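From the pipeline queue, job 12 of 40. The input is one protein chain; the requested action is below.

Action: predict structure.
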Amino acid sequence: MLQYDFLVQALLGAILSGLSLAVLSPFVTLKKIAYMGEALSHIAFAGIALALLLSLNLEVTTLFFVVGVTILIGLFSKFFRSDETNVITIFLSVAMALGIILIALKKDYTFDLASYLFGNILLVTRTDLTELVLLALVNLSYVSLFFKELFYLTYNMPMAEVFGIKVKPVYYGLLLLLAVNIVTAVKIAGIILVTAQLILPASIAFRISHRLKPAILLSILVSLMSSLTGFLLSWQLNLPTGAVIVLLEFVFYMAALVIPSRQTKNLSEG
């Protein structure tokens, strides 16, 4: 298998994509914004459709579209005093509807829904790998630099404000980073794998440890194991890589459920 360059690139793409998302997974899970990650991955669909219709750069157009919608969600929630979850659901539905209409307007393009849902890991290029490496480094740097703020943000945001720890800019930075990760990963891994890798690694990790730092490392380890093993299994069984990785992570999750969940009294040891 390793004698084929495109397979090596695909394997590295699966590993790096999972690594990038796994770094953010614990914070997304603890902050209970997994729905935001799923929403952004659906919203990215409309950005992709817009880029295809206007023959624009796919990644840049999608990124600007997703970031723009994220800002709109924040503005609607703040100025119209609307529940953020409801606003996100509304924009998700509208973006999907808009994407379908834009695809329909592109008469000479046949949309592959399976590719959007599960991605096409075999089409990973060297440019994609470079982007994924840079993104993983940015994620790791962000978490390292703002770990204290992220810790308070996920566990006790009101307490952070009492002590004068500015967590809101870090929160918005996390959402922006999440948007960039999703836009980068969706075209490679697909919406279902992206959503799974934002939720499952941390869900597994927190069954084993309730301390934040070990949970981040465990989340990364779970993602690496799932991506590597899932890719090899998909190659041997001739099955879609993204789907195999998702199912494998679910198997790990079911196995983790057997481990008795400890009380959250150790959270402060993060």
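Job complete. Residues 263-270 have pLDDT under 50 and may be disordered.
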